[in-house]
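Can anyone check this?
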Amino acid sequence: MRAVQITEFGGPEVLTISDVEEPKPGDGQVLIHVDRAGINYADTHQVENSYLQRATLPMIPGGEVVGRTDDGRRVVALVGGGGYAEKAVAYAPFAYDVPDEVSDGDALAIVLQGTTAWHLLKTSTHLKEGDTVLVHAGAGGVGSIAIQLAKRWGAGRVIATASSEEKRKQTLELGADVAIDGNPEGLKDRIIEANDGKPVDIVLEMVGGPTFDESVDALAKFGRLVTFGAASREAAKPVETGRLMKGSKTIAGFWLADCFSTPSMLAEPLAELMDLTAKGELKPLVGGEYAMSDIAQAHLDLRERRSVGKLVLDPAR
């Protein structure tokens, strides 16, 4: 079968199409004939072996797929790896039925980015009605869903950051109350200005580096920041305990993989998100579809912040 396989770590240039052996499902696994695969920013880290979990070679990237099982079920699945291919295997508890009303792109957007956004707001930062929420990269896969969920769940004000005027406009269309430039220079002041001169209660942070530092300084008393990525590929400064004690601030981390040991932590949020999407009450932002032959371009677009929302791979092209 055709698949994107890497045999050395590096940038987009190491992504090549190969003819590889079809995967064989083991005990408790299902084989999925892939219609579309998800492309994530985390994949760019995995390909260069800078992700949280070290990779081994050769490797087929791709963490989620949507397609058909041998018995005809249409499912979206978290596969952990091997998604950039014509066929993939998933453990049965992580293959979820997709309603007819939910498109392939929407299903891929909510199975990983959607459940991440759900947990960032519910599990990590304990959003309560009236909280002000800052969403970094608001036009991205997680951010675009987090904006909608925060508004739905009663946030008092949602502030989004984005790198261009076009992306900032998209965040407003998704429901953000204010959209600001995400450049870290002077970011703390822009955040507070966007909140009528007051610090914010919640920050969803996935940029790292100075953006993380500025965001910590923009937290209100009892504010909560959750970090779930490092898109800038820059390390943030260590946070001294005094900065947290003064203001009673909380900093948390989140990685969706930590939910895998408790399948209900994925199944329950996904069921809610799938229902909202089917009803048209949640609108995932699908930013583009790429042929398998264009996967290097997709990774380049992600790294250079040219993309919005969820990116999708078509393994048939």
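Reply from J.R.: I decoded it. The first strand starts at residue 2 and ends at 5.
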